[in-house]
Amino acid sequence: xxxxxxxxxxxxxxxxxxxxxxxxxxxxxxxxxxxxxxxxxxxxxxxxxxxxxxxxxxxxxxxxxxxxxxxxxxxxxxxxxxxxxxxxxxxxxxxxxxxxxxxxxxxxxxxxxxxxxxxxxxxxxxxxxxxxxxxxx
Length: 137
Hints:
By secondary structure, the protein is α+β, with helices and mostly antiparallel strands. It has helices at about 10-30, 75-90, 105-110, and strands at about 35-40, 45-55, 60-65, 95-100, 115-120, 130-135. β1 and β2 (about 45-55) form a beta hairpin.
């Protein structure tokens, strides 16, 4: 007998995640994703921005891009993203992709050669969308 129920136990979630990772490694020869992070610090060593990404196989997934508002418009975001892309190429990645929402400056990615490959509505804010971007390296 089995039981299916709502369950927010972190230990149960980890078992599910670990089960899929094991399956992917065995069947798809899928390695564990490796972090590929770039951080911007000020002269005092305080983190003022960064790009958090994951590398696996031939791809990099950009999970988070953030830059302190006071530093925006000075090409720091472009420089950080370029560092991630350069390291991705050095590791053998052929593509990079990310997910963002329409109020998070999608034009920033478009100017850097990223193209939308999918979108979904974002019903919590009228007129906004979830956007999925992709770029060949």
